[in-house]
Please model this.
Amino acid sequence: MSEVEAVTSKPSNFIRNIINADIAAGKNEGHVRTRFPPEPNGYLHIGHAKSICLNFGIANDYNGECNLRFDDTNPHKENVEFVHSIKEDVRWLGFDWTDHQYFASDYFGQLYTYAVQLIEQGDAYVCDLTADDIREYRGTLTEAGKNSPCRDRSVAENLALFKGMRDGEFPDGSKLLRAKIDMASPNMNMRDPAIYRIRHGVVHHQTGSEWCIYPMYDYTHCLSDSIEGVTHSICTLEFADHKPLYDWFLDVLEVPCHPLQIEFSRLNLQYSITSKRKLTQLVDDGLVEGWNDPRMSTISGMRRRGYPAAAIREFCERIGVTKADNSVEMEILDSCIRENLNETAPRAMAVLNPLKVVITNYPEGQTEQLVAPNHPQDDSMGTRILPFTRELYIDKEDFKEEANNKFKRLVTGKEVRLRNAYVIRCDDVIKDEAGDIIELRCSYDPATLGANPEGRKVKGVIHWASAEQGIKAEIRLFDRLFNHPHPDNDKSVDDFTVHINPHSLVTLTECIIEPSLLDVIPGAVYQFEREGYFCADSELCRDGKLVFNRTVTLRDTWAKTEQQ
Ligand code: ATP
Ligand code: MG
Model:
């Protein structure tokens, strides 16, 4: 292991290798500064989580800094709600930008000065072509473009026109400032790209009405990186073609430093969307409850669903960083969530589809306070009280009038153990006029609390709740929001929303949960034994109403329960 590798305990990847080599070569005096540069035009999603973990993770590991920079050059789509949500999400994920919070708009003055410098050097000009003309003059991948008739304007004329643009003398779309590079370049991004455009009448969330010209992304990004002293500017693969332009601006201008752009592949998660534009469409068209709908692949949606931040970080670690485009299976995320919650979530019991059970040999009005562990393997999580009463609920799924031995739940005439309580036997089934089962008459064996008496084998264990003291709750069962693995990328349809899964939300309103959950803290996640992990909804638990979201199912539900 080299000295540099020893700095970090994380497994290496191609980005770390580049950084290690830079440090070994003494570049940037061995310093590492990254940045996470979201545009505040939507909420962050799981793809951003990958970028956050990567950028902040690298900064942490190399004792460097990661800047949080809002890339806010497109004011008509941006607003402060998004700025706040981004900060909340990054913080919740567990990262801290300390005082390194910036806005690209902080640099508008400096960027204007740089643009003037480009004009003075003969590296930029004001162009009057219409948008249509610009497109036509640009050429194609196989054909060189044509020079704009404005390309040879004098420096003095360009300076005067650019000042005029800034002073509001020209309407939107009538002029652009363009870099003077090469209209015949095989890289379309180098064919005299726009640097500044005119936008009247928009109030920028940071700079108000101070500016009526706004710098383009490619120009802004590299210069912001340089101004901030970023050493490694990590971005997604689609920017690989923009790298020559990133470097061009930094080469022709006299700038504080020249960061290295490194591209990695975007995270695509199967059965979900990682495009802010499309997530915006879901929200704006009312197809989901909002940005934090628990089915959304947004960080706020995942938080509301009950995904622990540590599990999302673990997921980002596990999928690794590559240069190959790929799409990651949902199961990988699910298993990170399960592994985390299996250790951290207290256990509780909830009956999703209640069926009344009357214990005929249990005295009316009697209540026993049974004690149950909050976690089967972790005593430090303490215990809870489970009231046992004559009337109980079990789940409809856990009873059959007749069944073979494979059905290890309750069957007429047979026994089953109630989790954390007694063994009961079903003696009688009560039905309504339609023939539906409405109640079971059972008897309990007082000698079976906690363990089977010697020689007695009762294999099945089912969960339950007291009918008298259990509390009513709503439980929302979520499934994938899309029923297509690549909803984003199906060329056979015009509109990705056709792939929305109509059964992605099933709401159960008659659930009964154990009374220890009466004062549940919104956001807390429990394992409802045999059912899965559930999170008390942070918006809907109010005025005494209890609403739980299913975070994730238990894999191997039966394999686990049978052994208990
Ligand atoms: P979107 O396409 O969802 O709008 P974006 O790249 O335009 O994404 P930004 O706010 O500009 O959104 O992204 C901020 C940072 O997050 C960028 O560095 C971007 O490369 C990175 N990022 C965005 N989406 C993903 C993704 N799916 N996987 C990894 N990184 C991503
Ligand atoms: Mg972007």
In short: The chain has three domains: 3-264, 276-346+474-563, 350-463. The longest strand covers residues 423-431.
